[in-house]
Amino acid sequence: MKGRTLVRGWVKGGLRQAVALVGELTTHQDGPRILCYHGVVEQPPDEWSVTPQQLSAQMEIVCGEGNPVSIGQVVAWLLDGGDLPERAIAVTFDDGYQDVLERAAPILDQRRLPGAAFVITGLVDGNARDESYQPTRPLLSWPEIQLLARRGWAIGSHTLSHPILSQQSLAASQKELTASRARLAEVLGQDVSVLAYPYGTRRTVSQRDRDLARAAGYRVALLDSIGAVSRGCDRFALPRCKVLGSDSLRVFRASLSGRLDLWRRIEDR
Ligand SMILES: [Zn+2]
Fold it and tell me: Ligand 1 centroid vs 27 CA: distance in angstroms?
């Protein structure tokens, strides 16, 4: 990691630790939780990625203290009256880095954990990325995405070019959501029901974008705003618990139990 990125990671890690401590004094919302990862690499270039060792230790906690479920099970629970165990946890990866297949999938497979990957379809096709987004490592190719799908992973959309949707024109935002869903359906030969918004904060995703996600045919859409999913929440703004490389296992446990939910106040401010 570069110096400034490293320091920012430490500061954020310390802040999240403090929030988790304060969170022990509060009550939290029950319900399934969706974890949001990005890549898994030996030497993470930024705070968004974790090491294989971190992921392994975290998945041990997920299996030991929670009940792993697929994102499809969460959707079925939310919309179709399906059952879910207590402390249900789904594991998702945004951006579609190659290391999701190479590093994350073997760790999840080892524990029979279902995974989900949200891919940026235009970038997989070799088209231009949005200027706000800079991939730090190679992305999955279509054959690799198809391989993940055959291995039981859920594949969802992370738009065409990873823009800040709320800053796009209506037509551009609509295209990002509809064309990426259509492309995935074409390549995978199946309906695509889940969208993960790029950046996924309440500032980068407007109500208009949520409406466009609904109109594009998704069944649910995921933010990166921490919290538990509840049957009463807006299904086009489902919360997810983002896991950062600077998170200690204590902070990770706090994000599973709800003790870190106060973090949303900091991030949404
Ligand atoms: Zn992303």
Answer: 30
